[in-house]
Design a protein that fits this description.
Largest sheet: 8 strands, mixed
Order of helices and strands: EEEHEEEEEEEH
CATH superfamily: glutathione-dependent formaldehyde- activating enzyme (gfa)
Distance between the termini: 35 Å
Bound molecules: zinc ion
Number of domains: 1
Strand order of the largest sheet: 5-6-7-8-4-3-9-10
Strand content: 35-45%
Shape: globular
CATH topology: glutathione-dependent formaldehyde- activating enzyme (gfa)
């Protein structure tokens, strides 16, 4: 049975609860994810609508033609990357209180990862070109 996963930004102004069933974590090393996260963006995918507490604190910008990124206005925590066409969220894994059932599965844009970032996890790795080939 899936459990309720509680999540919040660092200052607590934005919070929400969703059901995640043994979530897979994906790490993205693309230039945009490096900038917003200072290292890499680790996220879990959630398909569906989410009811947020503290909507007034959520700031959203167009990060590409197909997606937006949102962060907390007050503390700057990354909240999610969201596709414009479908309600598909890539929520920052760090927001969740309990990450004990999270598994790191994928790393994307591995060919542009800075050399000082070293992750030993056994993951499926995709280069920039492989990501573009898969998602256009
Ligand atoms: Zn905050
Ligand atoms: Zn990225």
């Amino acid at each position: 049975m899936s459990k309720i996963n509680k999540a919040s930004c660092d200052c607590g102004a934005v919070s929400f609860e969703i059901r995640l069933d043994a979530p897979n974590v994906g790490i993205c090393h693309c230039a945009s994810c490096q900038k917003i996260s200072s290292a890499f963006y680790a996220s879990v995918t959630y398909k569906g609508e989410i009811e947020f507490n503290g909507n007034d604190y959520i700031n959203t910008y167009n990060s590409s033609a197909w997606a937006t990124r949102s962060f907390c206005k007050q503390c700057g925590s990354n909240l999610f990357y969201k596709l414009k066409e479908t309600p598909e969220y890539h929520i920052s894994a760090a927001l969740f209180d309990d990450k004990s059932n999270f598994t790191l599965k994928t790393q994307m844009f591995t060919d542009i990862k800075p050399d000082y970032i070293v992750l030993n996890a056994n993951t499926e790795n995709m280069t920039r070109q492989e990501c573009f080939d898969k998602w256009g």
